[in-house]
Write a structure and sequence with these properties.
The complex is a heterodimer of chains A (279) and B (336).
Chain A lengths: L7 H29 L3 H6 L13 H8 L3 H32 L5 H13 L6 H11 L5 H25 L3 H9 L4 H12 L1 H17 L2 H6 L8 H5 L10 H32 L4
Helix pairs in contact in A: 1-13, 3-13, 4-7, 4-10, 5-7, 7-10, 8-9, 10-13
Chain B lengths: L1 E12 L2 E12 L3 E5 L6 H9 L6 E6 L2 E2 L10 E4 L11 H12 L3 H14 L15 H14 L4 E5 L7 H18 L2 E6 L2 H7 L2 E6 L2 E6 L1 H6 L4 H6 L6 E3 L11 E4 L4 E3 L5 E10 L3 E8 L4 E7 L9 E6 L5 E3 L5 E2 L5
The chains are: A mainly alpha (279), B alpha+beta (336).
Chain lengths: 279, 336
């Protein structure tokens, strides 16, 4: 960083703002975590207190692990999220490359058509999607969810990635062509590594909504074998009685995988930024 | 044998006609420089030769093969780009070896060619580095090395020195000239810098608005330009064009005289006032406003004491003057 700009006052103010924001953002997560380790009475008596020897209880986790097939739900959520992300990134990047790299009739129109997908929420088409899934026999399969989430993520992915791909030097791609690389190799070996930060951004943008979604699992795949974590957690929330221990424990556990994925992607993001610093 | 032959090559982007009826032959071992102002189509022409753009019409022959429909990698060419275009995630060695590996050459040959190229270009100690860890001049040498290892029939250079600073540009220019002597390969070099063109070329191709204006050796073009554009483009400072200051010139005719052919002389054909003086040590450049209101540049060798504002008289040898008609074409002195 430039020395002249490293004014201590500015640095403190910037860090102060960041720390404050972090505290606000982490507070609900913190409350969920501490309360998942308390007895039901303690949760309601003192929701902000840390668990002590008296109020400590693992009852929530025991309920969650005993009742229902929680590891299966975990696995389902993980499969759906990871496969959807993979497909969104792969097809999104390919479409973005085609739009950014090749001159063909209807290029601009195609870009606009994809941009429309960002503006129209996919849930408007729920009934049609359900009818389609019934007709193709995909109801109550993870494939149905993966297809829907891939479709949902593609427009934004294409939009962001094509902007980044236009920034990749033409000379580099042409050097590859002269060296005998096929268009696929140029895409996979030259262009993709250079837009890695953009890929990570798109992945993070898409991951959270997919992992947290309740709507499509409830409608398209509510069967016991295909339940996702969010849908599985709903069994503890009743109309009259809610098992808060179990809900909080389930939520605490649901944070973990998505956090691991995030750490993985954000490392790509940081590496991408530093490697982009050179010409 | 001819290394490259272009016949009636045209290129249009939509309704924009970029290259117009290009005809050109490059002999084997020749160093040909395409030169022209920006937007004249010289880079497009190079890309058409490389196969990165398709010609709209016409034939391109490299060696003895018509290559209009041959992909770039199979044309037997290698190209060096202005922005180096090195693969950022590969080491120097892998950057140079990639093309050969793609051709499916055996490992021993790849190794041998990379070693000899890196020795030639003084890159031995950098082979395991990545492009990000190299300076601009080293990167350009790697880019040249990547071209050499492929042992192409034709080298293509697209303004390879434009991103280098002045001192390095001179060094690299000399290196490229030495490389051409060592490899005695056919090379095509695109530049907008007329010094690079004059110093490197066996043959200069001057382009303007997608048309070839003139083809010839540097001294041919300097001594015998076909028209006013070529006369003004080559030579630095560029040629003076006068149509009022010289007596006895028919209407519509222009006289061209190079700054270095003008001398201070008491009984000179031209007189005027000095408006600016550039002292370069070895040379002195004077900007002069003639009595008829035209501006001209005079290049005097050595140092000169002439001051701004002084009145001077300039003379030139009639044999060193060029004459142009109203269509800017060169005409003989007798016709002027």
């Amino acid at each position: 960083m430039n020395k002249a700009r490293r004014n201590p006052g500015t640095t403190i103010a910037a860090h102060g703002a960041l720390v404050l924001y972090t505290l606000i953002a982490l507070f609900p997560v913190f409350v969920i975590l501490i309360n998942s380790f308390k007895t039901r009475k303690a949760i309601f008596r003192e929701p902000m207190a840390l668990p002590n020897t008296e109020s400590f209880s693992m009852i929530g986790y025991e309920t969650v692990l005993k009742q229902g097939d929680f590891f299966l739900y975990f696995q389902n959520s993980m499969i759906v999220t990871v496969v959807s992300l993979f497909l969104v990134l792969l097809f999104g990047a390919m479409a973005a490359f085609a739009l950014a790299e090749y001159r063909f009739r209807g290029n601009t129109l195609m870009g606009l058509y994809l941009a429309l997908g960002i503006m129209i929420p996919i849930r408007i088409g729920t009934v049609a999607i359900l009818e389609m899934m019934v007709a193709t026999g995909l109801v109550n399969t993870l494939t149905a969810l993966i297809l829907v989430y891939t479709a949902q993520g593609l427009p934004l992915a294409v939009f962001i990635l094509s902007a980044f791909m236009k920034g990749v030097s033409d000379d580099l791609k042409n050097a590859g062509r002269i060296d005998g690389l096929s268009e696929y190799m140029i895409f996979f070996r030259l262009v993709l590594p250079l837009v890695r930060p953009a890929l990570a951004t798109v992945a993070v943008f898409n991951m959270i909504p997919i992992w947290n979604d309740l709507w499509f699992p409830l409608i398209l795949a509510p069967s016991e074998e295909t339940k996702t974590l969010t849908l599985g957690s709903q069994v503890f929330i009743g109309q009259f009685v809610t098992d808060w221990n179990a809900v909080l424990s389930a939520l605490s556990m649901a944070i973990l995988p998505v956090m691991i994925l995030y750490v993985f992607f954000s490392r790509q993001l940081i590496r991408g930024i530093t490697s982009g610093a050179v010409k | 044998m001819t290394a490259l032959k272009l016949e009636n090559v045209n290129k249009s982007f939509g309704s924009v006609h970029v290259l117009k009826d290009i005809n050109l032959t490059v002999e084997e071992g020749e160093f040909v420089v395409f030169v022209g102002p920006s937007g004249c189509g010289k880079s497009t022409l190079l890309r058409v030769i490389a196969g990165l753009e398709d010609a709209t019409s016409g034939t391109i022959t490299i060696g003895n093969e018509v290559v209009n429909t041959v992909p770039p990698a199979k044309r037997g060419i290698a190209m060096v780009f202005q922005s180096y275009a090195l693969y950022p995630h590969l080491t120097v060695k892998d950057n140079m070896a990639l093309g050969l590996k793609q051709e499916g050459q055996p490992k021993s040959i790849v190794e041998e060619r990379v070693t000899s190229a890196s020795r030639m270009l003084d890159l031995d100690q950098y082979l395991t580095r990545r492009p990000a860890e190299l300076s601009g001049g080293q990167r350009q040498r790697v880019a040249i090395g990547r071209a050499i290892v492929r042992d192409p029939k034709l080298f293509l250079f697209d303004e390879p020195l434009s991103n280098l600073d002045a001192a390095l540009r001179m060094n690299t220019r000399v290196e490229i000239a030495a490389l051409h002597r060592t490899l005695s390969a056919s090379m095509i070099y695109v530049t907008h810098d007329q010094i690079e063109a004059m110093t490197l070329a066996d043959k200069i191709v001057v382009l303007r608005d997608g048309r070839i204006e003139q083809v010839g050796s540097p001294m041919e073009l300097y001594n015998n330009p076909a028209n006013r554009f070529v006369a003004g483009f080559l030579g630095s400072p560029s040629m003076n064009f006068l149509d009022r200051s010289v007596s006895g010139l028919a209407a519509g005719r222009t006289l061209g005289i190079r700054p270095e052919h003008l001398t201070l002389r008491a009984d000179g054909q031209l007189s005027g006032e000095v408006t600016h003086v550039e002292r370069l040590g070895g040379d002195t450049n004077l900007l002069v406003r003639t009595d008829q209101g035209e501006t001209l540049t005079v290049r005097l060798f050595g140092q000169n004491a002439t001051e701004v504002g002084s009145r001077i008289s300039l003379g030139f040898d009639a044999a060193a003057a060029f004459y142009f008609d109203d269509a800017d074409q060169r005409i003989l002195p007798a016709a002027a």
